[in-house]
Design goal:
This protein is of the alpha/beta class. Helix content is 52%, strand content 11%. The chain has 19 helices and ten strands.
Length: 482
């Protein structure tokens, strides 16, 4: 069974601004009118004219969060509606920032009838002298996500009724806007107490008292304040590739950019190895630039856009993490990897018929050896005892020596390759990536050899005039200093 509930909007201003039809409807009601809060300009005037209200102000005091408050109000309204037809009055317009009305509309046991009421947005636009057609976002100060804020549009936070909420809004905005950015504190628009006060963002929560008629207005931010956003990056890349853009950027293709992609990744790895946070930031930016350039080339050619790239990875991450985004379970990292490989195989289908498929051909040989053996190990092609790998390494070393003894250059190359392949497998067994280990050795060699050069240079000596024994002396010295 369903029960009728009539919801009336009280508008945003005084009794004089209340629509005549709504005024007459309220005056004609002989029963008590339920109202979410008595804190509204027209309530006192209506009470003086004989309208009786039952408010839910005390409900706010008896619950810890708004969700419980709104749930309690809705449940009480439905229970009252079972006894008689009721009228429920809310501030402003019933369909603007009124969670209790939304919850009522979701109820299967309630039939909601909506009756007008001016939105306070009309008065707000008038007070601020803005036209929402330029772009407008309306946000609940109690519940918002920074990533969803659109700073290029007129931005209004409603229900900023105390210093705590004002502080939360301020701290979020400071992530994206300068401290001296001017914002407006707007109070009681449409009433005789209407006030618009402009302050620096950093002062937003200063001298804030409790007032449920307060909003905060953030004017559209100029482009130069949006340089940290993805939308701005996309604009820049499109402009660089546009008709009036950069000649170099405009001539690039997927093929011409290949070398830069490899170079930027290696520079990122170097910054990571050096534990250089600023360097990591810069090099990650360069890697992202490659992604954006390739995506813009795809868009210019009409094949794909950055949205397709993002959609692809988002859908992949959701599908391969059912333990996070669905009802799957995974209690360990190993279990996650197993699920990942299974789901990946399902996605690829017959496109990858070999266990070894999916290893990129341009991958450096040592990294490729590591990857190939890791894939083979997942299906059981793997030594369980490291002693067997060491024995295999001895076997391959003997074969290298035999090839050297025979003087067969082709055989030497092949057998040395086998040694490196076994070393890659040995590194994998001990959970060491051979490329990382070798790069560590490279850096160590560079450091020690540079030390030799500097030590000799300080004595006025050149490398070509120095004996191996003397160079070994400084090598050992560099090693001791490490």
């Amino acid at each position: 069974m369903t029960y009728p509930i009539e919801v009336i909007g009280l508008g945003a201003g005084t009794l004089e601004q209340l629509p005549l039809g709504i005024y007459r409807k309220l005056k004609a009601i002989t029963e008590t009118v339920c109202v979410r809060t008595l804190e509204h300009p027209v309530i006192t005037a209506l009470q003086e004219e004989g309208v009786v209200f039952h408010s839910y102000d005390e409900t706010y005091e008896s619950h810890d969060d708004f969700a419980d408050v709104y749930e309690h109000i809705v449940n009480d309204l439905v229970e009252r509606a079972k006894l008689r037809r009721i009228v429920y009055a809310v501030p402003g317009h019933p369909m603007l920032a009124e969670k209790t009305v939304q919850l009522l509309l979701e109820r299967e046991d309630a039939v909601v009838e909506l009756a007008g009421g001016h939105s306070y947005l009309d008065a707000l636009f008038t007070a601020l002298r803005i036209d929402p057609i330029e772009g407008f976002q309306f946000v609940d100060g109690n519940s918002f996500v920074r990533s969803e804020l659109m700073y290029r549009q007129h931005l209004v936070f409603c229900q900023v009724y105390d210093a705590f909420i004002a502080s939360e809004v301020k701290l979020t905005l400071l992530e994206d806007l300068p401290a001296d950015y001017q914002v407006a504190i707007v109070t009681a628009v449409g009433t005789a107490e209407e006030a618009v006060r402009w302050v620096a963002l950093e002062e937003l929560d200063h001298d804030i008292t409790v007032d449920n008629l307060r909003s905060v207005y953030v004017p559209p931010a100029p482009k130069n304040m949006q340089n940290h956003t993805f939308a701005r990056l996309k604009e820049i890349i499109a402009e660089l590739r546009g008709p009036n853009g950069c000649p170099w950027d405009k001539k690039q293709t997927h093929e011409s950019l290949r070398e830069y992609a490899i170079e930027e990744v290696y520079e990122l790895l170097e910054a990571i190895d050096q534990e250089d946070d600023d360097g990591i930031i810069e090099e990650l930016g360069d890697v992202l630039l490659q992604v954006m350039l390739h995506s813009q080339i795809g868009e210019d050619n009409g094949y794909f856009t950055i949205d397709d790239v993002i959609r692809s990875i988002v859908e992949k991450m959701i599908h391969r993490h059912p333990h996070v985004f669905s009802n799957g379970t995974a209690d360990s990292a190993d279990e996650v990897i197993q699920h990942w490989d299974r789901l990946k195989q399902e996605e690829k289908g017959d496109a990858r018929r070999s266990v070894l498929s999916g290893v990129p051909k341009p991958l450096p040989a040592l990294a490729k050896a590591y990857k190939l053996q890791a894939k083979a190990a997942k299906v059981g092609f793997n030594w369980e005892d490291p002693a067997d790998i060491w024995a295999k390494l001895d076997e391959e070393m003997n074969e290298v020596k035999a090839a050297i003894h025979q003087g067969n250059q082709t055989e030497i190359e092949e057998e040395l390759g086998d040694v490196l392949f076994v070393l890659a497998n040995l590194a994998r067994f001990y959970q060491i990536h051979p490329e990382v280990a070798l790069e560590t050795a490279n850096r160590k060699f560079i450091h020690r050899f540079t030390y030799i050069e500097n030590a000799l240079a300080s004595q006025g000596k050149a490398l070509k005039d120095t004996t191996l024994e003397e160079m070994d002396y400084y090598w050992d010295q560099a090693k001791e200093r490490e």
